[in-house]
Amino acid sequence: MSMIEDILVSAQGGKLVDNLAQSFGLTSEQIRSAITELSPALALGLRNAASNPEALNKIVDGLSHPTHAAAFMDHSVACCEETATLGQGAINQLFGSNSAAGQVAQIAARDSGLRPDILTQLLPVLASVVLGGLSKSLGDKGLGPVLGQIAGSGGLEAILGQLAGGGAPTPRPQAPQAQPGGGFGGLLGALLGALLGGGAKGPAGAPPSPGAPSGLPGGLDPAAIQSAIEMIKKTLAQGAPAPDAARGGSPAGPQHAELQDVLNRVFPRG
Predict the structure, then answer these.
(1) Region Disordered: what ranges (predicted)?
(2) Which letter does DSSP use for residue 243 in this model?
(3) Helices (H), the chain
(4) pLDDT digits (tens, 9 = 90+) for 125-177
């Protein structure tokens, strides 16, 4: 059983399957089948998001959102309108668009025996519960205070704005092109390194902007943030099946290869 499946079957005190079956008018076996078929897609989406700056930014913010944490614990929260909206936002980050999410549902429908439209309705709920479960897991590893501080400071985007010297959240930039040693880790490392080295500098080593902050709100520790981000990226990557060299780097199995093909169109590899 994968990490994502473990999270889902343990959610809501181990009653998620029965709770969803009742809410969706399905049998518990049908919900288990849906989880089995959708979990690889969620895992691959999380793994790909871990290497995509724009998506990872949103996922980290999701991990610190109290509604996702509550959805993992409480069925009434998991099936409420706010969770559906937040879960759909997470799905759009994981799969890039409603169209890609629809393709994922079509692929999963073949083996689950459920209609694609039902799986499309389930996906946001499962995504929210998974984020809540991942948040709990990271909290158990000691990252709870950091996630709480990120949430209390307006999210990761606001913190990056502070680190970049803006003093306030800035409009989300286009995701930077991957560079050797770069990507999100390189961007964050440069910003944090500048701050830890004695003052916030621009990504290219420019002098601090006028009024650039010498620290972060709420007593946030830049080194702790960087450590937390790296642990989050590692955790997200652990959920996906290992690549199979015999299949050109796609996870083992034809279904996984199809899912990866869909996601590669959203997050092309350099």
Answers:
(1) 163-182, 201-220, 236-270
(2) B
(3) 3-14, 16-24, 28-50, 53-63, 66-73, 75-78, 81-95, 98-112, 116-138, 144-152, 156-163, 183-196, 222-238, 254-266
(4) 999 999 999 999 988 888 877 777 776 666 666 666 666 655 544 444 433 33
Q: Hey, CA dihedral for 178, 184, 188, 191, is it positive or negative?
A: positive
DSSP class of residue 190 equals H
Is 141 exposed, middle or buried (CB count within 10 Å of its CB: 0-12, 13-18, 19+)? exposed
The Cα–Cα gap between 183 and 50 comes to 10
Neighbours of 85 (CB within 10 A): 12
Domain coordinates of the chain in residue numbers?
A: 3-146+239-266, 157-229
Residue 29, both tokens: 């076996």
Contacts of 182-189 with C-beta under 8 Å, sequence gap 24+, read 183/51, 183/53, 184/51, 184/52, 184/53, 184/56, 184/57, 184/229, 184/233, 185/229, 185/230, 185/233, 187/53, 188/160, 188/225, 188/226, 188/229, 189/226
Give the list of residues 6+ apart from residue 269 with CB closer than 8 angstroms, or none.
none
Which residues lie below 8 Å from residue 81, measured CB to CB, with a gap of 6+?
A: none
171, two tokens: 């409009």
Q: Are 165 and 202 in contact (CB under 8 A)?
A: yes
pTM value is: 0.72
| Per-residue DSSP letter, 240 | S
Q: Are 15 and 213 in contact (CB under 8 A)?
A: no
Dist CA 144 CA 43 (whole Å): 22
